[in-house]
Amino acid sequence: MTQEIITFKDLGFSPEIQQAIDELGFEEPSPIQVQGIPPLLAGHDVIGQAQTGTGKTAAFGVPMLEYLDPDNDEVQAIVLTPTRELCIQVTQALRTYAEHLDIEIVAVFGGAPIKSQQAQLRSGAHVVVATVGRMKDLISRRSLVLTAARFVVLDEADEMLDLGFLEDVEKILRMCPSGRQTALFSATMPPPIKRLAESHMYDPVTISITPKKLTVDAIRQAYVEVPSRGKTDKLIEILKAEDPEQAILFVRTKIGASRLERDLKNRGLDVKALHGDLSQGVRDGVMIAFKGHRVKLLVATDIAARGLDIDHVTHIINYDLPNSSEIYVHRIGRTGRAGRTGRAITFITPEQRKDLLQIEKDASTTITAWESPEERIEHAPPPRRRRRSGHDPVPLDDDSDDDSEAADSKAADSKAGDSKAGDSTAADRGEADRGDDEVREAPDGIAKLFVNRGNRSGITEDDLRWALREGAVLKDDQITSVRVLDRFSFVEIDAGQAERAVEFLDGSKLKGSEIRVEVARR
Ligand code: AMP
To answer: How far is CA 196 from CA 97, 157, 203, 368, in A?
Structure first.
């Protein structure tokens, strides 16, 4: 990567805010911060197309904090959020960035006693972070006035639209001074959001952070779900089980890097850390030792690993989930080079499941639950076999099977893409029942199922994965792929689970529609 590196120093924050950032261990601004902070500091309206996890809270939060006058006791800034979870999350983040400032940040959201929120507002708030309904309520009770709210943020605007809050958002915007500065963040930009921006924002600067699609196909990817407390123990277990030749362990912050290095050393492991707090000399020494295979494990932050040119790493371990799908792809691209298959293992906390799904989506990849080598053997696909009408297995004819499988699957797919049939079943698709009733079973023990619903019925890949997990009790790693087409979908799962999945899911309801599920037949 040869792009120009912009540091926090280049952004020129006040010392109090810079101190908070340093304490958080952020090494450099994320792309949304690099692009969003300068125009916001300069007083421009900004539309940011970015998802959670990109660092957008600091992108608007830091310029907001820089704008505030601690001596003015009015509400000078508001952040509107679609849900109480986001409201709480944003408040916590803003408070960490405001750690060394004399700024009061108050969260108001539904489902909690309004009286205590009123009391908090009475005792003074420079910033109010709110869900839409509760803010409206507090305004109508005159507990909140927005006449001095000159910095307004709409966070996850598309979610607010989906939840039907847009009209209320507009009402709230009209109560704020017309000379205000407005920032709007949204993962997507549907027309009503664009219209809202056009009518309520002044000459906005638009920035968009969309993860690039990169291929990570040669890399076997797994995830491990573990609460923060159990991470180190789990890591040790995984390192023992995987026994990597050499691994890079990615962490998000410099502090995190030092801590993990210390913890692993204390457990007797051969490890060195590479991060921005080390002198260049020390960093070079670490690099040379790692390249020369004198160190097995390298703990690194993303920045420190930037110039790494290493092609023999067997394992990448994302000890901290990266902030974006792009970083994920970039990190794991360091294994599996030169025709080798690498292995990438990503740690997530239960709350980060949705972030992992986002990465899978952005990188068009599948990340399965990590299994120990013993478990992997236990769950290995059953021996290749072919069944007739779901009855007696007959010996497999190797030559013919591979070819017919490929042709078969292509035929089914292209047919699916073309078909105009609405609720068609495999039988309707014509290719289904040509007298040959063999269950189509992939040679590697994968079965393909046909589902008679797709995009048109509002079904998404996540919905089907959810149905397979919750409805058919499949494990993530038993689901090989899910493809949602316009009018129907295909899922590939472990052949051994096919019958059960059909039994559980066929005739069930998904997003309000009854679904038909069957094994895709020739
Ligand atoms: P957000 O998208 O604002 O929810 O941020 C996602 C996560 O990234 C939060 O845990 C932040 O603390 C963290 N974060 C934000 N900015 C940075 C940065 N520049 N470097 C490292 N982590 C960051």
So the answer is: 29, 10, 13, 40
CATH number of 213-371: 3.40.50.300
Of 6, 24, 358, the one to substitute when testing ligand 1's pocket (max ligand atoms within 8 A of C-beta) is 24
Tell me the pLDDT tens digit for each residue of 210-248.
654 445 666 789 999 999 889 999 999 999 988 888 999
Bridge partner list, 49: 186, 208
All CATH 3.40.50.300 domain ranges of the chain, comma separated, are: 2-209, 213-371
CATH 3.30.70.330 in the chain is located at 405-519
Q: Find out whether the beta carbon of 95 lies less than 6 Å from any atom of ligand 1.
A: no
211 neighbors 363 (Cβ within 8 angstroms): yes
CATH of domain 405-519: 3.30.70.330
Q: pTM of this prediction?
A: 0.50
Fold adopted by 2-209: Rossmann fold (3.40.50)
Torsion of CA 308, 53, 325, 481, to 10 degrees: 140
How far apart are the CA of 30 and the centre of ligand 1, in A? 8
Is the Cβ atom of 56 under 6 angstroms away from ligand 1? yes
Report the nearest-CA residue for atom 21 of ligand 1.
Answer: 26
